[in-house]
Amino acid sequence: AITIDTASSAGENIIVQAGAFTANALNALFDITVTSSGAIAAGSATAGRDIGMTGPTLNLTTANAGRAMALTTTAGNLLAGTLTSASTMTLNANQELRFTNATSTDGHLDAQAGTALNFTNANGAQLSLRGATIAGGAARATRGNTGSDDSLRLTASGAITIDTASSAGENIIVQAGSLTANVLNALFDITVTANGTGTGILNIGTATAGRDIGMSGPSLTLNLTSANAGRLMALNATGGDLVVAGDLISASDMTLRASGAMRFANATSTGGHLDAQAGTALNFTNADGAQLSLRGATITGTRARATRGNTGSDDSLRLTASGAITI
Questions:
Q1: CA of 136: how far to CAs of 63, 90, 119, 169, 194, in Å?
Q2: Is residue 266 within 8 Å of 254, Cβ to Cβ?
Q3: What are the pLDDT digits (tens) for 283-308?
Q4: Nearest to 233 by CA among 210, 214, 208
Q5: Which of 60, 127, 221, 252 is the most exposed place for a label (fewest CB within 10 A)?
Q6: What are the residues facing 8 on neighbouring strands?
């Protein structure tokens, strides 16, 4: 084991190889590299270029890299406070990954946990978060549209619970057993796939996309205040019910599908076809589309309107049910 209070290199690098390593402060003009067969515990690490640490477990209070940062645990948890890198940041934990604030100011923040991933703030020009479960505050892909893929990706086999997810330049792409989010905001597209074998529950406050919104799963319960797509919207419950509490708005086509029942409050396609189809009952308050098609075993609603004037195309209102229609 190596136990030291302060290690500094004024002109080059710090290179550590140990059975276990504990340090209060590490400071190098260029790089810091720590490789340990035992636990690593460090208070602060500051490098003008790169920081790399690998060990069975890792506990790091603060770290600041002038270029890239790579932290890896091979057999246990990775626990950190505030992490900052100018370029790419890679966090890879064999088990739990937990950090307070991680920021890659101009690179890809790529964080992967073998079990739970927990954080307060995660920021990267491009951002990828993966774990068995994910729980966090704000996840932001911060770089504006540059022509490269600067999307925000959240991937978990279980539940994802997050306050805010935003992509300033590209897309938000979510794959999860379930998703709870207060705010989803993307310059381009929002795509959510509930990949659990049971009910895919989506509890979403607001979802806003400059282009398309697509959400699918075996069955979907969308508890949301509002969803607004600058282009298309498609919600698809492939094995059950589609339930939406709140307003759905798209500038172009809106497609709503449920193999079971469908229920929504207000759905509006301002310049396209609103096409809603339920395997059983379709219930709604208001449905508006330039062209409007509603289908179900039964249909019950308050108001259905095909809003576009005669353009020479077929902008009709169609209501189709094998049972009763009450409107």
A1: 20, 18, 5, 21, 18
A2: no
A3: 999 999 999 999 999 999 999 999 98
A4: 214
A5: 252
A6: 27
